[in-house]
Design goal:
There is one protein chain. With 214 residues, the protein is mainly alpha-helical. The protein has two domains: 22-111, Arc Repressor Mutant, subunit A (Orthogonal Bundle); 121-155 and 164-212, no CATH class. It has helices at residues 29-37, 41-52, 57-64, 68-80, 121-149, 153-156, 169-178, 180-212; strands spanning 22-25, 84-91, 97-103, 108-111. Strand 2 and strand 3 form a beta hairpin. The protein is elongated and about 80 Å long. The two termini are 29 Å apart.
Length: 214
Amino acid sequence: MSSLLPLKPTPRTASNRDLEPRLVGFEDESAEQILSAVTSTTARRILNQIYTEPTTVSDIATEIDSSVQNVSYHLDRLRDAELVEVIETWYSKQGREMDVYAPTNSALVLFAGAERTTPSLTTALRRVFSAVGIVGVISAIVHVRWSVLTPSPSSRSVELPVQQPDPTMWETLVTFGAGPGGFVLGVGVFLILFFFVAWYWRTYRPARSQTQSM
């Protein structure tokens, strides 16, 4: 492919960017916009070219024998449908910036019927961190309640209380870990990690392997 670039860098392909396939049912909200964006033969050729190799508008126009204006028009529609995105900026011989377009997913699948989507590892990790955060808040509440309800040694003595130095960070963590708050946090995190590992081995890995073999 000819290029206006003095030295053409090697773009990151879909595999190098660790993208996941995108499965869209015909009844999904985004399906209509996607179908509208790829109605034109030119748009489909552009999308196919970008999946083959991320590149610039001018290189796409040269490859499919179309004008830069026409390619730019279809690229805008493909971007609105979240099918392509700009991943890099190259420079021409004249120093002009040139956006490099690449697919947003490793594959695009439109389907009808029962939904069979590949589980998303990113979504699962996001849910894991959210669950850990919730458990952390609950354990902190338990720790505070336990501290309030548990009388301190000074309150049991009739002597005047002696001012104690503020506890260090390590002492605070040890106190938290040895109390019910630490127990709740430990059990909660263990259960979350257990279910995540079980999901990863029983659901994500088989589905991922099946998708890659398609």
